[in-house]
Amino acid sequence: MCGWVLKRFTKRGDIVVDLFSGMGTTLIECKHLGRGGLGVEIDPMVAERSLQRIKSAENPFNVPVAVLVGDSTLAVTAKRVIATLKDWGTDAADCVILHPPYHDIIRFSECDGDLSRVTSEGDFLDKIGLVARHAFEVLKPAGFMALVIGDKYVDSRLVPLGFMCMQRCIDAGFVLKAINVKEILNNERGKGKNSNLWKYRALLGGFYLFKHEYVMIFRKPATRAKRAPKGVAP
Ligand SMILES: C[S@@+](CC[C@H](N)C(=O)[O-])C[C@H]1O[C@@H](n2cnc3c(N)ncnc32)[C@H](O)[C@@H]1O
């Protein structure tokens, strides 16, 4: 999923944190490419299954890989991530990957805190904002973050979820560097193929949409910009 992100924005020996690690695809790619990988997954059963997959993948560069069971919206989870990074000999991640649920398009689990169970769009976005802040906290200055996200269609309304989440990442302090649009036609497994009738609706409505998701690239500033005190011209 994010192999090109890892190749382009990290180097061998770097550490990548995936705050929605699911079945561990990113972490397996980390192993193959010689990057350490730390995942966070809310569903203990998914985390366990991903660990089996990860363990069976070759580790030619002998990098550390682990999955924490936790809720990425919580500060305590960010603390656990930082503690694990310290155990691995570093203070911060070199790259962060966010591949959250696209709100409620697919229900991932019945676990409390699963973002696919959040009922309102506003609450979902607030929680994405929290995750973005934790991503900012665990990432080293000048490090890159990739957000993989799609839009959704509900009640005859296109919800630009990708751009809404993008704004939450900017609000958390990230600088947006690029928006890559990826066609996911014929690659729809796990993306609501049966329930998500985008193309049909788009054609019916007289507009054309190709089924897509975004890979948005952000960067944490090298140093925090100094803010002028309120009421004082910069
Ligand atoms: C789109 S999937 C990620 C897929 C992943 N890239 C893979 O390779 O399988 C989103 C994942 O986020 C998990 N998740 C949902 N809410 C979460 C939360 N608050 N904290 C951590 N993980 C969460 C879901 O259980 C699901 O596995």
Q: Could you characterize the architecture of this molecule?
A:
There is one protein chain. This protein has 234 residues and is of the alpha/beta class. The chain contains seven helices and nine strands, in the order αβαβαβαβαβββαβαβ. The chain has a seven-stranded mixed beta sheet with strand order 3-2-1-4-5-9-8, sandwiched between helices. A two-stranded antiparallel sheet has the order 6-7. Helix 4 (75-87) packs parallel to helix 5 (121-138). It is globular, with a radius of gyration of 18 Å. The protein starts with a helix and ends in a 15-residue tail after the last strand. The relative contact order is 0.14. The site of S-adenosylmethionine has 23 residues, from helix 2 and strand 2.
Helix vs. strand class = alpha/beta
Largest sheet: 7 strands, mixed
Succession of helices and strands: HEHEHEHEHEEEHEHE
Helices, by number, come to 7
Pick out the low-confidence regions. none
Whole-angstrom Rg: 18 Å
CA-CA gap between termini: 42 Å
Strand percentage lies at: 15-25%
Q: Determine the fraction of residues in helical runs and give it as a percent range.
A: 25-40%
Mean pLDDT, nearest integer?
90
Order of strands in the sheet with most strands = 3-2-1-4-5-9-8
Number of strands: 9
Distinct ligands: S-adenosylmethionine
What spatial form do the alpha-carbon principal axes imply? globular
